[in-house]
Automatic annotation (TrEMBL):
Any one GO BP annotation for this protein: DNA-templated transcription termination
Protein name as catalogued: Transcription termination factor mterf5
Family: Belongs to the mTERF family.
Keywords, ordered alphabetically: Transcription, Transcription regulation, Transcription termination, Transit peptide
InterPro entries, sorted: MTERF, MTERF_sf
Alphabetized GO MF terms: nucleic acid binding
Length: 495
């Protein structure tokens, strides 16, 4: 709750949602003259949009296999892109096993069920990311699929090609035809095993001591178990040049003012950051984002909040910015959104941002203002998170217009848990001497702690015998709250 309150604070008194001027990094977009115009939600000036009826169909689509994610948040365009990426990964993997490019291509062209299987594995592995609207980067897709293909190769060995071509009917192993392994491994096999052991154990097979990566990270304060976890999840990290890749990134983050403990968390969450060129990728991407309005003084906080930001392509970032402009959000406000909540760039425009904007628009909400005030609403699942909250208030007698007013007045309202927050606070509200309309006036009620703020304040109010608005009971500081109570009590005595 604290994090939500922190991110959603720092909102200017007056938000300028005037027509944005042309930004330096991309072509101008004809902004909305009226955010409540239905035409906005069916077209985008810069890109060809999928018709709304088609998008509704996508939201209802489901996978045909038990292991796959319910793909209600995935558009056909995204699925096609993922399949092409899966084919590219499989091609590289087969070539690595000794197949020619032509043979690998032939195998893949007749292995559609296996490609679908790879996609289902990808969705299963990152299910929570997809549900929150998080779009995987190319590197993340490749890491996940390569790891799975390697496990298949360990299991099936030289018949892996048959497994791929005959999926989901695996070939029967002919054990009699399998060669008997030699009693002693060959030097090549031994070298490969030593390398594998060294990657995870941290031992240098030649010198018998810890690898430089381990020593350096342990000096920074990382536990050896954490380092092993990083390398197991992302083996390529162990092959990064310590002096050419890892140290420069760490030193750069230190120069930005980031504490060591936060750097270690970033390396644990996003080790790929060390694989990206500092001079050719990271710094230019930061300059590009600064041109969009990101506060350069806040880079340490921005990267810590969402280290994946620096791994996205400019095309991906521009798509998100274009949509914000389309909502009529000013350039200055876009820069503030990226600084406070850089995660917004990870959300798919067509599969997440636009449908969510349409939903809140149907409640009569100023979508641009809501996105500025509390952008994390747009990372929620419409079916799993947003609609249940709306239904919760509808079942308690509120109209759609009143619900729209509530979310407009208090942006984080939809980010709270139904069972952990809204329901228990609603139950207590029913014991308070306030009409239901009081929550429409002050939906911030749901943002206060029930045990430490709401119940004690209300108990104090009841003891005093006076009556205050719900806003006065909860939003005032302790001293001001007591002052107001005393004045009210004194007035009652005089009367």
């Amino acid at each position: 709750m604290f994090l939500v309150s922190f991110i959603c604070s720092d909102i200017p008194q007056t938000l300028q949602l005037s027509k944005p001027s042309k930004m330096k990094t991309f072509s101008s977009i004809q902004p909305l003259q009226n955010l409540h115009s239905a035409a906005f939600f069916s077209s985008t000036p810069k890109r060809t949009q999928v018709p709304f009826s088609a998008r509704v169909f996508f939201c209802q689509a489901k996978s045909g296999t038990n292991e796959s994610l319910n793909v209600k948040l995935l558009s056909p365009m995204l699925l096609v892109a993922e399949k092409e990426e899966a084919k590219a990964v499989l091609t590289l993997f087969l070539k690595k096993q000794g197949l020619s490019n032509a043979n690998a291509t032939k195998i893949i062209n007749r292995s559609d069920p296996f490609i679908d299987h790879l996609i289902s594995k990808l969705h299963s592995k990152h299910k929570t990311w997809y549900l929150s609207g998080r779009e995987l980067t190319t590197l993340e897709i490749r890491d996940a699929l390569i790891s799975y293909l390697e496990s298949l190769f360990e299991e099936h060995g030289h018949i892996l090609v048959d497994v791929v071509e005959n999926y989901p009917n695996p070939p029967v192993k002919d054990k009699s035809a399998e060669p008997i392994p030699p009693p002693n491994p060959s030097p090549a096999v031994l070298s490969k095993k030593l390398k594998a052991v060294s990657l995870v154990s941290g031992l240098d097979p030649a010198a018998g001591n810890l690898r430089p990566h381990f020593v350096y990270l342990m000096e920074l304060g990382m536990e050896i178990g954490q380092i092993k976890t990083i390398i197991r999840r992302y083996p390529a990290f162990a092959n990064y040049s310590l002096d050419g890749k890892i140290k420069p990134v760490v030193e750069f983050l230190l120069e930005l003012g980031m504490p060591k403990e936060q750097i270690l968390i970033i390396l644990t969450k996003r080790p790929q950051l060390c694989g990206i060129s500092l001079s050719e990728n990271l710094k230019p991407t930061m300059k590009f984002l600064e041109s969009l309005g990101v506060d350069k003084k806040q880079w340490a906080k921005v990267i810590y909040r969402f280290p994946a930001l620096l791994t996205y392509s400019r095309q991906k970032i521009n798509e998100s910015i274009d949509f914000l402009l389309e909502l009529g959000i000013s350039e200055e406000s876009i820069g503030k959104i990226l600084t406070r909540y850089p995660n917004i760039v990870s959300y798919s425009v067509e599969d997440n941002l636009r449908p969510t904007a349409m939903y809140f628009h149907s409640l009569g909400v100023d979508v641009g203002l809501l996105l500025f005030k509390c952008p994390q609403n747009f990372g929620l699942s419409i079916e799993a998170n947003i609609k249940p909250v709306t239904e919760f208030f509808l079942e308690r007698g509120y109209t759609l217009e009143e619900i729209g007013t509530m979310i407009s007045r208090y942006g984080p309202l939809y980010t709270f848990s139904l069972t952990g927050n809204l329901m228990p606070k609603w139950d207590f509200f029913l014991t308070m001497d306030y009409p239901k309309s009081e929550l429409v006036k002050f939906p911030n009620f749901f943002g206060y702690n029930l045990e430490r703020r709401i119940k004690p304040r209300y108990a104090r109010l009841k003891c005093s015998g006076v009556r205050l608005l719900l806003n006065q009971v909860l939003s005032l500081s302790s001293s001001k709250f007591e002052d107001v109570l005393k004045k009210k009590m004194k007035k009652l005595q005089i009367d």
